[in-house]
Write a sequence for this structure.
């Protein structure tokens, strides 16, 4: 079994470089086109017998759910929303952009940026909390499914998960694991199971 992860399609706030977090922004026209192109790619892979999805799991947020439903409809498979796959809650920083945050929050931003796994954004989550709920959601998926699935989620979720899988400091996540809209990332079941075991062991 393989898990195929993707980030949602583009939104207006992506174009404007605004921090979205929990703010529920829909896909823009380009985002819908990206989602349609993703669905065509997945159909092609299924026809080539390299991809055998039985279900699409998605963040409940609109930009992800819209992306997921387009692929689910094209593939003729169920689409299930899971709360654990939602984007990171960035609290007071949502609606702003990173240049403004660096300027307005100064030392507080620098401390967060250098200790981002365990330090909270103001009024929001830290990346360890994002990782924990993501792994809990993936554990539930693995307990339900025995064949390939598509998982539609968000940038922070994917960066935290991939950084943890690679056993790298979370300060490396943006440089190493920035994910484009509707980019596909394949992760094997056993990698996820090992990560769940490590996290439960407190690593």
């Amino acid at each position: 079994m393989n898990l195929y992860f993707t980030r949602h399609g583009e939104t207006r706030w992506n174009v404007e470089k605004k921090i979205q977090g929990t703010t529920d922004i829909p896909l823009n026209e380009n985002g819908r086109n990206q989602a349609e192109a993703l669905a065509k790619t997945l159909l092609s892979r299924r026809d080539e017998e390299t991809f055998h999805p039985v279900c699409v799991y998605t963040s409940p947020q609109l930009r992800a759910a819209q992306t997921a439903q387009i692929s689910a409809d094209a593939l003729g498979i169920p689409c299930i929303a899971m709360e654990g796959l939602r984007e990171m809650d960035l609290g007071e920083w949502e609606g702003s952009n990173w240049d403004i945050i660096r300027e307005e929050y100064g030392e507080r931003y620098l401390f967060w940026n250098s200790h981002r796994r365990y330090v909270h954004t103001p009024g929001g989550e830290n990346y360890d909390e994002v990782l924990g709920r993501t792994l809990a959601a993936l554990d539930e998926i693995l307990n339900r499914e025995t064949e390939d699935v598509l998982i539609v989620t968000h940038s922070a979720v994917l960066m935290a998960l991939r950084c943890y899988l690679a056993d790298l400091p979370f300060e490396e996540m943006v440089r190493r694991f920035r994910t484009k809209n509707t980019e596909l990332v394949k992760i094997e079941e056993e990698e996820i199971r090992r990560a769940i075991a490590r996290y439960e062991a407190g690593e």
Observations:
- The chain has one domain: 2-200.
- The two ends are 25 Å apart (CA to CA).
- The chain has a mean pLDDT of 96.
- Residues 123 and 192 are 29 Å apart (CA to CA).
